[in-house]
Amino acid sequence: MNHFKQILKYATPYKRFAILNIISNILYALFGTLSFVSLIPMLSVLLGETKPVHQKPIWEGITRIKPYLENYLNYFVTNQTEINGEMYVLTAMVCLVIFMFLMKNLFGYLAMYFITFLRNGVLKDLRNNLYKKVVTLPISFFSEKRKGDIIARATSDVLEIQHSFLSILELIVREPLTILFTIIIMFSTSMELTIFVFLFIPISGFLISKIGKSLKRHSDNVQKEQGNFLSIIEETLGGLKIIKSFTAEHLFTNKFKASTTRFFKFSNTLLNRQNLASPTSEFLGICVIAILLWYGGKMVFIDKTLDASAFLVYMGLAYNILTPAKAISKASYSVKKGNAAAERVLEILNTSSPLEDHKDATSKDSFDAEIHIDNISFKYEDEYVLKNFSLKVPKGSSVALVGQSGSGKSTIANLVTRFYDVNKGAIKIDGTNIKNLKKSSLRQLIGLVTQDSILFNDTIKNNLLVGNEQATDEQIIDALKIANAWEFIKDLPNGIDTNIGDSGNKLSGGQKQRISIARAVLKNPPIMLLDEATSALDTESEKLVQAALENMMKNRTSIVIAHRLSTIQKSDSIIVMQKGQIVEQGTHLELINKNGVYHKLVNMQSFD
């Protein structure tokens, strides 16, 4: 129930719809019960059970309401029959029945109408909060989670919450009140018969509850497996070129089939248990009705303690309890099923980020002196990838980080942008530890261009506006010119309004990278981080991108992580790294003359 309480918090903004729903449900339950009661006078007229009463009855208080209503009904029927005839009375009774059922269904519709806004509102807010949480959680969180599993939580799991947890909101007032009002009328009709019926209800409830105990576990298996096969789809779409080139279609098809087969088995088990709820409750209900027919028939025909019309309506009332009772038992199964979905959704919503801004974190609008990486050590898991690393990057200078793969170069970029926090030491900008800065403020100072050109399925313009939402078309074009991208964009059918496809796949690698550079230029930050921005390009594209990078780095502080050493010869300082530590430091010429690690790296690469 703790999960249910947390989900209900999302209903607070829609409480007016909840109040209107409750009012409508109360009236639905009331008219639902009265609609059956209204059958008594009609049946009395049809069966000729109406006793002649010529004097209008006198009200004697609430304790005598039943005989008062019976006598008043008999008085009305007697009086109207004498004046207008039996068909008039029968027509009036039929109209009363129609009116009661009309009101019942009208308020039933209104209850559903109001709850729709609440359910869909909670669904919307849950998804919005889930998405907001996903984009604020640290990158380390997603290295442990499959993307498909996250997608499953935001789609099918949230939908399951709507269908299961929130369906209770429809039942929480309507069904219990329908049962309550019906029981009151049943007791007033025949206390003896009602007590007899109630002896069998606990037995039915016990049998129904036994079925639903394992639903949460089975539901959890279904949702986890759904996240699994969504992950396979996501990975397949992302790696389609590799799958096709290695003719590995059958491997991934078999992997997907194995997942959907497990999903098939889990779903069958879950749905079969869930489907058992309705027929079981109905069968047990019919058993109670059968016993009722036997005992009630005895009261009508042998004991003569109950009128036939009252007994017929009593039977209808008894059956009227079955529908809400079935709905409640079904809802209890839904809660168990929804509990698993809520647990998965709330796991993300309740996850606290280790990179949250401190309550006293400050903003910084300018970069004035230097970046100081002060004796830091860092590990992703167990082994340190950076050990006692220190570096100063003065304002306006260009510092390059080189070394073999795994030496810790890209980790520096991850730490300066605070995608991860250092384990030891500190990174300072103008003397302020970046942990004491708001993340948004820190990242506004930094432009990032990565090896993989991360673009979105949108227009070139909208991809660049990620860097600066307020930029004009002229500013966008200027940024594209600096990045050497305007030369090919101006020839596109729709210019900057051309859609570049999923991940920018309508463009070449060099074109994508130049758009990424233009995005960083448009942001116009004082610090640039270039993480192997040219390593995935051919020679011709590399020259164009390198020229764009040099244009971009003018009058800016830059940290360049380089694989191709030809791209960093003009850097003010080159840092050579091995196993997370600095082994050499100096300009290109100084390091060449040292004839050390850098010299060997240069000799291993061919220059144009």
From TrEMBL:
GO molecular function: ATP binding
SMART domains: AAA
Gene3D superfamilies: ABC transporter type 1, transmembrane domain (1.20.1560.10), P-loop containing nucleotide triphosphate hydrolases (3.40.50.300)
Pfam families the record matches: ABC_membrane (PF00664), ABC_tran (PF00005)
CDD domains in the record: ABC_6TM_MsbA_like
Transmembrane region(s): 26-47, 88-115, 179-208
Protein topology in the membrane: Multi-pass membrane protein
Subcellular location: Cell membrane
Origin organism lineage: Bacteria, Pseudomonadati, Bacteroidota, Flavobacteriia, Flavobacteriales
S-adenosyl-L-methionine is among the record's keywords: no
Protein name in the entry: ABC transporter ATP-binding protein
Domain of life the protein comes from: Bacteria
Keyword Oxidoreductase: no
Organism expressing this protein natively: Aquimarina hainanensis
Residue ranges annotated for the ABC transmembrane type-1 domain, each copy included: 19-337
This protein's UniProt keywords: ATP-binding, Membrane, Nucleotide-binding, Transmembrane, Transmembrane helix
Stretches assigned to the ABC transporter domain: 371-604
